[in-house]
Amino acid sequence: MTIFSSPAFEGHESLHAFHDARAGLSCLIAIHSTALGPASGGVRMWPYPNDQAAIDDALRLSRAMSYKNAMAGIAFGGGKTVVIGDSRTAKTPALFEALGRAVESLGGRYWGAEDVGVSPADLADARRATRYMAGLEGHPAASGDPSPVTAEGVRRGIALCARRRLGKPLSELTVAIQGVGHVGGLLADRLAADGARLVVCDLNPDIAAAVAARTGAKVVSTDAIFDAEADVFAPCALGGAISAATLPRLKAKVVAGGANNQLESAEIGRAVFEAGLLYAPDFVINGGGIINVAAEIGALQRGEPYDPAWVEAKVAAMIDTLETVLDRSQAERRPADEIAVRMAKERIAAAR
Ligand code: NAD
After folding, report:
1. Of 177, 238, 263, 285, best ligand 1 pocket probe by most atoms within 8 Å of the beta carbon
2. Would you place residue 1 in the very low, low, confident or very high pLDDT band (cuts 50, 70, 90)?
3. In terms of pTM, does the model score above 0.85?
4. Higher confidence at residue 9 or residue 171?
């Protein structure tokens, strides 16, 4: 097992391993940076095949949170927790309370929130042992489901990209949405209200059918979505939608969606750029959710209620940042994702 010499560790401040045999907890908390403020990032529960896989994931995800938080213009660094275990069988209140003690022991250098495999009820168990857990329910500071804010940021990002690349308003667009769960489904509702035509798919046919019934979207298979006649391709499922196999099939001139890790690799980011597609870097356009969580953390710290006006101002600023990324990408003739990573690193370095 390697840590310090691993490329994944590069730039990290710390990696913490916690074990509580009685509670059944084995978890890692990676803190990439606290330059802009305390690290924040979700708690993921996943049955990693071995410790190295868990370490690599924690480090990869905490760095990504640093970049996302920096580009969202919130006073938070990047961190991530991975709990090793199967969320369908291994969850107990005692496990999450032990996680809360682990988070508390870091003295506020890291704030946790919801991620894959973890529910608000689990976070409530952790919260019994720590002040540093957001994603509460039934509290004046609670921010609720982040998906509507994420979807609204993506909608505005699509509007910006389509105006720049195609000179079209939302009402004249056809948007292909891959995955219509929380974010993709809300995005579909909003775009339909804007007058856009939609082509959607989902691994779960019932979800796709429900969205089609609400929005008039055409439903296609999860494979055919890559061939859809559309102006915009919006990945809103899991990572890796844009790959060497799928890029040549896309008819859309804009790729902009809510999913994390949309590009299979940095090389494919360059290929997207060279093919003349306008790509909205995922960690810039989908920052609405973390902005919403930051609103809750700020409210908890100040002992005030959740402030929707603060969230709106930050989402508007996030779209301005996306525009700056696209301007620089155009001026420097470099892929937008490269520009966005560089800007995030600059923002973090400037705060050090
Ligand atoms: P979700 O689980 O509610 O929705 C994802 C949907 O994608 C599901 O309905 C699933 O059936 C479908 N899906 C999975 N693989 C698919 C495939 N190959 N083809 C078609 N459909 C597929 O999740 P979500 O909260 O909507 O998040 C979607 C994406 O956005 C994820 O990548 C997530 O990390 C990212 N994200 C979400 C938020 C948020 O606020 N929820 C914020 C930032 C980023």
Report:
1. 238
2. low
3. yes
4. 171
Q: Kindly report, residue by residue over 288-319, the tens digit of the pLDDT.
A: 999 999 999 999 999 999 999 999 999 999 99
Overall size of the chain counted in residues: 352
- The encoded tokens of residue 102 equal 């682990």
- Whether domain 148-285+321-349 has CATH 3.40.50.720: the reply is yes
User: Cα(182) to centroid of ligand 1, in Å?
Assistant: 7
Name which of 275, 311, 306, 276 is nearest 291 in CA terms: 311
At the fourth CATH level, the homologous superfamily of domain 7-62+79-133 is: Leucine Dehydrogenase, chain A, domain 1 (3.40.50.10860)
Note the maximum CA span of the chain: 60
Decide: 181 in ligand 1 pocket, CB within 6 A: yes
CB 142 within 8 A of CB 304: no
User: Does 314 qualify as catalytic in the annotation?
Assistant: no
Q: Is 209 in the pocket of ligand 1 (CB under 6 A)?
A: no
pLDDT bracket for residue 2 (50, 70, 90) = confident
